[in-house]
Structures are given as structure tokens and as C-alpha cells.
Amino acid sequence: MTNFKTLPAALGERLSGYRFERDALGRSSASVFRLEGECLPPLYLKVEAAGPFGELADEAARLGWLKAAGLPCPDVIARESDGERNWLLIGALPGTDLASASALTPLARVGLLAAALADLHHLPIVSCPFDHRLEKRLPAARARMQAGIVDETDFDETRLGKGAETLFAELERRRPDREHLVVTHGDACLPNFVASGGQFSGYIDCSRLGVADRYQDIALACRSIAGNFGAALVQPFLDRYGLTAPDPARLDYYQLLDEFF
Predict the structure, then answer these.
(1) Distance (Å, rounded) from C-alpha 155 to C-alpha 42?
(2) What is the DSSP string of 85-117?
(3) Which residues does the entry assign to the active site, renumbered to this chain (predicted)?
């Protein structure tokens, strides 16, 4: 991918003078490259195989919507597709993601995450065109399972060894009877939130943003915090967000749902 011959001509011309460095952080199915060049603004280029489960078009649409809603996120600079691969070129936010921002204490980082999610969750859901309620997400999870792209080797430790069909049956059986709907990030893990100078600077990897139960974000944030910093910082995050006594069943349900994405 560092060879311009592999890029569409328009992108190759635009990126002349840039160096490509693979960014291995995160679990996206797309390949991600950080681009830097002398006297040039840093950029990110994402590349994925074209197909029914691609996410780059979704990400571009959501970044445009989020920017229009007044919340910080990368600028969409260009999109290209040749039918085999999709490319998305976006601007780089200032700072470092919250999993890597070692200049900040873990407590400060979970506080920034909580505030960023609260700001997102306060957006009016009627203004958001992306519907990720369970009536939409469960069929999407089933389609991914039937296509064989659910990675059973990457399940959380408590679910390793179980098959996707077993877990999907559990999803259907345990489906909550109501949803507290907000605009969710959809993949609210520490690497998807960026801070600069001790302040939150923006949301990244937004391809799954949409209206869903707030536990979609709270559950993944709690798991990410426990995995990165230890379980002791989960409660300070919840306190800062304003959900001091979460529902353990809902936390587990949305972590289970995430196994399919």
C-alpha cells in the first residue's frame, strides 16, 4: 500500500510527498495508514475490500453528520472505490487516543471518555438518520454470522469456545424489552477517542455511530477501561458519566452483541 501504483490516480496525485505508516491499533477490518510529509498536514488513509460488509462509506456519512452536529471529528477529504477496494482519506485530529495518551493519568482519561460520551448522548435522536436499534442490529449480526465473518477466536474470555450460533441464540433469548435510545458512537473503546493538551479533541472510527441504547456505548467503554486500566476505574467512569448503578445484565448483553461486529 505504500506504492502509489496501488492507489486510484486521483488519490495518488493528492498524496504525492507523503510517507505511509501502517497503524495497527484497533480492530477495524480496514487497513489504516498514517500519512505524513514535510510541510504537509497529517492524514489517515483507510482501505478495505469492497463488499456488503464494508464500513468506509458508513464512516464517511457519519463523520459528515457528526461534524454538522457540532462535535469534533476528522474531516472527510476524499472517497474512492474501484469495485474491488474502497478508500477513505480523512484528516488527523490533534493529540493521542485515550488508550495511548500516557501524559494523562488513567483517571483523567476515563473522565474525558465519560464526558465525550455524555456530549454525544445528549444529541437529539430525531436529528440522527442512522438507526442501530436492536431491530436493525440483530439482523445485521445474523447476516455477519451467516457470511462466516464473525471471528470466534476473538470472543471475550468468558465466551471463548462457544460458537457464533450459540451466542446468537443467547442474543435473541436475552433481548431487552426496552431501549434507552441516544446517539451512540457504537464502538466506544478508548482508542476511538482522542485528547490533546488534556482536553478531548474528537471522535474517530465512527462507522457504527447511530441511534441505539446507551448501553451500547457504556458496555464497551466499561470493558475497554477494565482491560486497559483495571476494573477499579470503571466506577469512576460511570460516576462521571452519571450512571452510578448500571444494570449488569445490559452491560453483558451489549458486550455479547459486540462479538458479532
Answers:
(1) 34
(2) EEEEEEEPPSSEETTT-TTS-HHHHHHHHHHHH
(3) 187
Query: CA 250 to CA 50: how far, in whole Å?
Result: 34
Please write the tens of the pLDDT for every residue from 97-154: 999 999 999 999 999 999 999 999 999 999 999 999 999 999 999 999 999 999 999 9
Residues pairing with 32 in the sheet = 46
HSE-CB for 60 with a 13 A CA cutoff: 18
| Sign (positive or negative) of CA dihedral 137, 141, 146, 148 | positive
- pLDDT of 23 above 90: no
Q: Is 58 a catalytic residue?
A: no
| Active-site entry in 23, 131, 187, 239 | 187
C-alpha grid cell, residue 112:
474525558
First to last CA, the chain: 25
Say whether 192 counts as a known binding-site residue: yes
Q: Give the HSE-up count for residue 159: Cα atoms under 13 Å, Cβ half-sphere.
A: 22
Q: CATH top-level class for 96-258?
A: alpha beta
User: Which residues pair with residue 246 across a beta bridge?
Assistant: none
**What is the pTM for the complete model shown?**
0.94
At the top level of CATH, the class of 4-91 is: alpha beta
Q: Work out whether the CA dihedral 214, 218, 221, 223 comes out positive or negative.
A: negative
